[in-house]
Amino acid sequence: MIEIEGISKSFGALKAIDDLSLKLPEGAFCTLVGPSGCGKSTLLRMINAMIMPDSGRILLRGTDIRTLRPDLLRRGIGYVIQSVGLFPHWTIADNILTVPRLLRWPEERCAKRLDEIVALTEIDPLWLTRYPRQLSGGQQQRIGVARALAADPDIILMDEPFAALDPPSRANLQDEMRRIHAQSKKTIIFVTHDIDEALKLASVIVLMNKGRIAQLGTPREILAKPANEFVQSFIGGGATHLRLLDLEQVSTRMRPQMAEQAPAIFAHASLKDALNLMLTEGCTLLAVQDQNGQRIGTLHIADLIEANDHRGTA
Amino acid sequence: MKAEAQSPAAFPARHWPLSLLLGIFAAAVFLMPLTAPLFHWLFPDLLRPVYTRASFLTLTLAHCELVFASTAVAACIGIGTGLYVTRESGKEFLPLAGALAAIGQTFPPVAVLALAIPLLGYGAAPTLVALVLYSTLPILEATIAGLYAVPSAARDAALGLGFSPPGLLWRVELPLAAPFIFAGLRNAVIVNIGTATIGSSVGALSLGSPILEGLSASNPAYVIQGALVVSLLAVVTDQAFEAIEERFKR
User: Fold this and answer.
1) Residues of chain B contacting A, Cβ within 8 Å
2) What value does the mean pLDDT of chain A take?
3) Both ends of chain A: CA-CA distance in Å?
4) CATH for B55-249?
């Protein structure tokens, strides 16, 4: 889907990207994560030709992007940036329909697509006739996401899209992206400096340092087997095991026995939530229930420790 | 006259209705001959208390022609240069353009007239040159300021979503810069209405004609009449711009 072959890019004396190669399968939710200056944003912006590499090449669906007209290439790729960049002189509806209009879709197709996008991204239809300045930061970025999705691109690039938002808005939009990714199976490339955000969202994490890939893997792989000291320190050493608990659902460690006298937790909650509930309630046993509140098993504190038993093999 | 023309913001915040101002202005232009008794009473020594060499309508039309033609040329130069020096290809000329326009602005219009006469002769041509030089800077400055005021995030997003450079200019940058450019035009027009009067010193017909003749023939009535009509023209024009701006805001 996206093949990056030996690209390098320097800005003056600074080597932003250093002979980097990467292959991303279709439908991946890939987070590019690393400290500031590691080249993650540069890498992202090379995929839609906003920045051209000094050497190497980038193939999208087998086509070298250098052979395409940049503006036409970009119309097929969603783009969301931290500073949102809605057009202040256009209504929200016009902002969302930016790319369909660039593609000269007929008005009735635009109108139909607007309805779909409003439903998909859970936008209040009352906003559509308003102007960007009338919305809060979180609401504006929701429009930014809607705008990126409007022409139904199969690749979406997101450059620290939620970094400037307050924590509730950020968590809310993160959940939204997970849901949209699960529904649409689009390939999403998401730059962040926040390892927790990367772990929460990614199917593949690309951890970068000094223009190179420090480690590539699933969140679990990165947490369980950090490739080197840089990765170890970036994922925050001691909290690794708590983060691993966060990645796994209660249902995977549940025992089928029933327990009546225990606090209840949902099967799809994370093991970290379960541990937190045990600490809060001062107990070692939880009753597990399904979405309808039906009790379906139990979770013992020993199950949490067992969940981390690959510690020894790491 | 100049000071008043250059600072339209100093005009009282509560505006007179445009139609009322237009009425007063039209009265001044058309009914000036009827004021002879008034000026005779004010300046009993004068033989001819009202300027009659050309009608005030003729003077006003000639004046407006000068202002319109010079501002149109200045707008083409100012906006065109402003666009060019804010493009990637013209960036290196930005300081140069700013400096040239500033020189044009600081050069006294009278000196421009004096220098232009040997090349262009007497009449409207040297006046137009002086007015164009004088009013290019406010338009150029406003154009650059307007384009710089476009949020860089909007520009980045527009490019990233697939606007072509001309599409970015026409559909994002210019609409967002328009209020600034319009304000620059307004400024240039008002300045030119005042400055065009000096064209009469080199033989161009304008509302400066009665003023200059009044100065050289010691006829204060002519000076007052010319200045009155020019001031009213400036105020009416300024308020017309104001009305257009208000409409655009909505």
Assistant:
1) 151-164, 167, 172, 175-176
2) 90
3) 32
4) 1.10.3720.10
